[in-house]
Amino acid sequence: MPTQTTTHTSLHTPIPWHILGAGSMGALWAARLSRAGFAVRLILRNQARLQAYEAAQGLTLVEGENCVLLPIAAQTPEADEPIARLLVACKAYDAETAVAQVAHRLTPDAEIILLQNGLGSQQAIATRLPHARCIFASSTEGAFREGDWRVVFAGHGHNWLGDPQPGAAPAWLEELQRSGISHEWSQNILSRLWRKLAINCAINPLTVLHNCRNGGLKAHRLEVDALCTELSTLLESCAQPEAAFNLNDEVHRIIDATEHNYASMHQDVAQGRRTEISYLTGYANHAAISLQLAVPHLQHLHQRLCAHLLHRGLPCN
Ligand code: NAD
To answer: Pfam families under this entry (predicted)?
Structure first.
């Protein structure tokens, strides 16, 4: 029996999970896959990051009271190992450049799983790599970095994965199952990503502009409602009627259910981190422009947010 074959579709050859970006989400996925016995390789930015990682002797996953150090293999983009399955766990604004750095290593039938929030970065990567199968993901899991190479699994949630092109669910979903990664195959992943984008657009920027927790938006109901109306029209115009269904109600339900929380964009701004606005309000506004649809509230929101970020010395793209 061959121990290694050149084609990765062989039943005998385990396909390693290459994980590009060892931040919160990348580490969370890497740790669970590795713990379940699957081959994982972290792809770190450069030699200096690789040395720092090796000095730490692995990734640490903190889950409640438990803390485990996992000596997961790591490499730089320049390594020569072919990549057949790539999980992209960078921020939306870094994803395309990061993938370009390893594009020459992708096998002809490579699969790429894109974990980015919002929309736009996934399509850019799919366009750049027409031969790869790009699977888009939407996650409600939560993780944050407590320090370099140390990640806290903060919020249990679920992952939806899907191919915007028609196609069967990949066999490796079983590996997610065995790794305890809660997931399902979505037949309409774009609808799910649009819905999440719309909810993010209705809540996150306003919490930044009003400097409040999600619950603080109860005092700005008219502003939220005006955004939801425009976002619903936009979703319908983009042929995403399911994503538009009862958007306003769900946004208010989320505001109520998470009233004590700070939105992720609020946390990013408070900590001086770049936001993903180009892939949220920026993407929504571009979509409206290309459809010649007037969305004055959404446009004004994006402009106010940009001005606010620039004022704080943060990029507005
Ligand atoms: P993060 O900033 O913690 O991690 C991103 C990592 O990518 C960083 O370690 C960065 O150094 C690395 N990176 C960037 N460019 C790289 C390159 N060229 N080569 C190698 N590594 C590179 O971000 P995150 O919180 O894990 O978020 C990733 C995506 O997942 C975002 O789009 C985010 O919105 C989404 N998301 C995050 C959470 C969460 O709880 N953290 C939840 C749902 C969705």
So the answer is: ApbA, ApbA_C
